[in-house]
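Internal tracking record. Fields below are filled automatically when a chain is submitted to the structure queue. Please do not edit lines marked as system-generated. If the sequence contains nonstandard residues, flag them in the REMARKS field before resubmitting.
Queue: standard
Priority: normal
Entity type: single polypeptide chain
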Amino acid sequence: MKKKLFALLLAAMMVLSLAACGGGNDPAGDAPDDAASDGAPDSTPDSAPEGGETYVVGISQLVTHDALDAATEGFQDALNELLPGQVTFDYQNAANDPATCSTIANGFVSKNVDLIMANATPALQAAATATADIPILGTSVTEYGVAFGIENFSGTVGGNVSGTSDLAPLDQQAAMIQEWYPDAKNIGLLYCSNEANSQYQVDTVQACLEEMGYTCTQYAFADSNDIAAVCQTAADASDVLYIPTDNSAASNTPIIDNICRGNVPVFCGEENICKGCGVATLSISYYDIGRKTGEMAAKILTGEAEISTMAVEYAPEFVKKYNPAICEALNITVPEGYEAVA
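SYSTEM-GENERATED OUTPUT FOLLOWS
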């Protein structure tokens, strides 16, 4: 009887021992929640330094196209290098809808993010409307004075807004058209009427071209629904077309190219539009201005700089580029000093 009782006790002890050993592998155990990435790369810090501050940065990008994508990439790369493992990015894309920019900005305010990066003018305007407290850095914004209706803009927005500009010298863009087509007469300026900075660019370029003796006509489209019709009208009436740095045009370069290739040369305000439908451009690196924005963000987040006194930063250099395929289709010779778009 004693031997039987001992055997039963021994068996019970073995069962309890096995259960204890297997408890750490329970598949139903709680797991840490994953941070929402919203499709953005590197949205969660790999591992924050022990005792270091962590930050949530909201990114509002107007639309997907190469230039804005490059600016966002540069911004994230710079912050990840300067504050390794300390920043979580909440990336949101408005799909070229200004109303969605407002929804995104209000969402960031509700989440109380530490900083908002607004990529393109409508995203910046929406963010500034949504909050006067959270720091906002714009990028891919041509002219901040125009974006905010600031007369005699001195270079500093003030309040909770600063950022970087994608403005290339507009007088030099006009001179580029004269360099390629000195005998042209009618220049069409194609742009989106819903982008305030596009209006600013075409007005400025038109004034320069008219001083050179060209006749200029503006052709404004409201959105992607009427761009084909407006572009066709402009192409039929013009010897040369000019398109400024314009997000709606950048998102619809296949339509423009289908109408203009081999028929009328198009000069562009930035490289990625030129890559899609243009002859030549005087452009900047959007990745570089994104990185500069990230450097500004790091200073703001760590308290090294106060955004209200930060001046808007500009691209350090500009490059003349041409599109080999379109130049071949138009059978034109490229002037010296231009490099091919990648």
